[in-house]
């Protein structure tokens, strides 16, 4: 897996997607559709397992689009054929979609029977990419939406804990205060407090405070 740069104020925020990919990488086989791919940070990792990687994003994305293969508004019909993908990846995308029910129905449509989907969404996180920041999901909300969209074998997992949440909030705020040459003062603080937060979250569990949620599921196979 690609390395996380640990000199930044927010490297701990990347633990959640990095861990989700690493724990599920063996499911990335066949044709993988990265829905809302952005800069496609996990493309090199996925291509080690998949036969084909398809980056899908909308043409007005704020991110680098050099890895986008298919331009498609994910609130509408996804421009991929029925039953064309073995795996769908949806990393920190659904909070930006105004029509999540339609999106999951479309993700189900493009997946083959028993196709695998990996979703991650933020939970305790600031507004971002405004005004296209619509929802914060709970594990129960994600499970409900996936069931409605005809997915089975649904599992959800929370990522990060209260110490990660508090540390990242402090680091984002302090980065705004420490401008210009003063920012160098924050580097050792950010480095230490993120390592400490990770350690504390492993030792002390608060089940209702976390950074993100990961959900996995499979498309319900047709009986006939």
From TrEMBL:
InterPro entries, alphabetized: Methyltransf_11, SAM-dependent_MTases_sf
GO BP terms, alphabetized: methylation
Domain Methyltransferase type: 34-119
GO molecular function: S-adenosylmethionine-dependent methyltransferase activity
Transmembrane segments: none
A family per Pfam: Methyltransf_11
UniProt keywords, alphabetically: Methyltransferase, Transferase
Superkingdom as given in the UniProt entry: Bacteria
This protein's name: Class I SAM-dependent methyltransferase
Natural source organism: Pelagicoccus enzymogenes
